[in-house]
Amino acid sequence: MKNNFEFWTHFAEFLTYLELPPRSDGLETNPFSMLISKHFASKIKKGDWNDPLLRQVLPSIAELREVNGFEEDPVGDQESVQEDGILQKYVGRVLVIATPACSIHCRFCFRRNFPFHADPTLIPRLDCWLEKHTGIHEVILSGGDPLMLDGETFQNFVSVILKQEHVNTLRIHTRIPVTLPQQLLNTEKQSHFNCLQKAATQKQIVFVSHVNHPQELDDESHKVFQNLREIGITLLNQSVLLKGVNDNVQTLVALSHKLFEQGVLPYYLHQLDHAKGVAHFEVEDIRAIQLLNEIRNLLPGYLVPRLVRELPRDGSKKPIV
Question: pTM for this structure?
Answer without folding.
Answer: 0.94
